[in-house]
Amino acid sequence: MKVLVTGSAGQLGRALQTSAPPACEVTAVDRAELDLADAAAVGAFVHGLKPDLLVNAAAYTAVDKAESEEALAHAVNADAVAAMAEALRATGGRLVQVSTDFVFDGSSPRAYRPDDARNPLSAYGRTKAAGEDAAGPDALIVRTAWVHAAGGANFVRTMLRLMAERESLRVVADQIGAPTWAGGLAATIWGLVAKDARGIFHHTDAGTASWYDFAVAIQEEALALGLLARAVPVIPIATADYPTPATRPAFSLLDCSATRAALGDGYTHWRTHLRAMLKEELALG
């Protein structure tokens, strides 16, 4: 099977490449090879390659910057997806679109199910919701949240750097979700592809956390592995104490039960995958 993976240098893109099934002939591209802001170029590239499967792991993800660059974010997160879907309809390929918890407004009293109504609060969320629509009814859409991987640009590595540099940290404690290891997300995507799944599925690691909970766990696990030499106070704060241009959902836990049922596998707690990620980070030096 000929597979095109976009976002090859990103956390998920790398994980998809390293875990691809043996039967997959993977072509992986990043922005330098394919600019998703150019929908015509995207369509032409897909037409030329004619992949059996396209996994779109690329996105405009600068959440706060998107508030002032919504047109660019829409071009990458929605217009490019529309071009992919149109080209794949012509060539007979399938599309996997990776989406986000930011399509929800955080007001749900329970974990969000795939068919729950969307109501994004930010430009980033709006453009990713538009990307879901552009993918079309035959696409596989996988929503996820709080992704991390060794060597990537993510909350875990930011915390490690700040904990080594500062005498204390203030971390938001009233935004609730679940961290997600990119390796587990990639495995779920490949598993759903093998099942020929279509429609919307959710994937995060099991459990619940605030950003504060996540930061505390990062420090504890990093100290145990020797990635940090000392502990610093981690102080919980409210979202209101850390204003940002983009509004984040206060609660974005995703219900992944349909995904686990489709794959017939179990749940892995986010802290287990955090520990594995930090061991990989240690091995990187």
From TrEMBL:
SUPFAM superfamilies hit by this protein: NAD(P)-binding Rossmann-fold domains
Classification via Pfam families: RmlD_sub_bind (PF04321)
Reactions mediated catalytically: dTDP-beta-L-rhamnose + NADP(+) = dTDP-4-dehydro-beta-L-rhamnose + NADPH + H(+)
Enzyme Commission no: 1.1.1.133
Domain of life: Bacteria
The protein's required cofactors: Mg(2+)
Record key words, sorted: NADP, Oxidoreductase
Any one Gene Ontology molecular-function term assigned to this protein's record: dTDP-4-dehydrorhamnose reductase activity
Family: Belongs to the dTDP-4-dehydrorhamnose reductase family.
Protein name: dTDP-4-dehydrorhamnose reductase
Species the sequence originates in: Alteraurantiacibacter palmitatis
Upper taxonomic lineage: Bacteria, Pseudomonadati, Pseudomonadota, Alphaproteobacteria, Sphingomonadales
